[in-house]
Amino acid sequence: MEITAQHHLSISHTKLPRPSSSSSFRASAASLLASTTSLPFQCSNNILQGQGVLRIKGKQLRSTFGPIYASSSKAQSPPPPQKWLLEPVGDGDTRHIGFKVPMPSAFEISSDEVTVGRLPGEADMVISVATVSGVHARIQKKEGKLLVTDLDSTNGTFIDDKRLSAGVVATVPPGSCLTFGDEHLAVFRVSKLENVEAASNPDPSEDKVEADIPNENVKTS
């Protein structure tokens, strides 16, 4: 009987380590849980780092829109004034004068008002021909049109073959001929110079839009 009791005691004694195995299982499970829960924390750090880079780039991208907005005000600036060109088209015949005189050069009308005549001290557009009056006519630019007024000249002012009345403002169409008293030496073809704006080089000071994201080794373990 004693042997049997001792045997039972030894058997029951051998069953005691079972709680230790369950506690080790809990410890291993807890360590596994701790290891798994640490992974999202590391990934969240990486995500925050990525968002931080994007926010910095976002600020840089927003700052580049400043010059674009400022360039819109440049488009609102008024266009440069239009210019007209008077090219001599006479035959250069001087027999009606009795001596040779040089042909006048071309004139570019860039001012709003120009006086035409033979006298340098009185006229802006000087035509050194005897048949042209000292102060012969006045040319004006208004609302994209070229206007001419005869200033009571001796030999008259003509648009093509039509003589103008003194003091009456007349419109000169592009492509027509304007004559100041002499059909051989003082006749000009009128043309309108179109405004041609040269292509401007991009401003090197303007920021360029860049969306490059620096390469970073993101550790996931």
Structure described in brief:
The chain is of the alpha+beta class and 221 residues long. It is built from three helices and eleven strands, in the order H-H-H-E-E-E-E-E-E-E-E-E-E-E.
Can you describe this structure?
With 221 residues, the chain is α+β, with helices and mostly antiparallel strands. The protein folds into two domains: 70 residues; 111 residues, Tumour Suppressor Smad4, CATH 2.60.200.20. Helices cover 32% and strands 21% of the residues. The protein is built from three helices and eleven strands; from the N terminus they run H-H-H-E-E-E-E-E-E-E-E-E-E-E. The strands form two sheets. The chain has a six-stranded antiparallel sheet, with no helix packed on it. The longest helix is centred in the N-terminal third of the chain and has 46 residues. The radius of gyration is 48 Å and the shape is globular. The N terminus is likely disordered.
Class of secondary structure makeup: alpha+beta
Q: What would you report as the Rg, rounded to the nearest angstrom?
A: 48 Å
Mean pLDDT, all residues: 73
Instruction: Please tell me the CATH architecture of the largest domain by its name.
Output: Sandwich
> What would the CATH topology of the largest domain be?
Tumour Suppressor Smad4
Instruction: Outline the biggest β-sheet.
Output: 6 strands, antiparallel
Query: Share of helix among residues?
Result: 25-40%
Q: In the residues, how many domains can be counted?
A: 2
Please report the number of helical segments: 3
In terms of per-residue confidence, which ranges show pLDDT below 50 for 5 or more consecutive residues?
1-14, 36-66, 196-213
Q: Tally the beta strands.
A: 11
What letter string, H or E per element, gives the SSE order?
A: HHHEEEEEEEEEEE
Indicate the overall shape. Answer: globular
Between the first and last Cα atoms, what is the distance in angstroms? 62 Å
Strand content is 15-25%
* CATH C-level category of the largest domain: Mainly Beta
* Major β-sheet strand ordering: 2-1-11-10-7-8
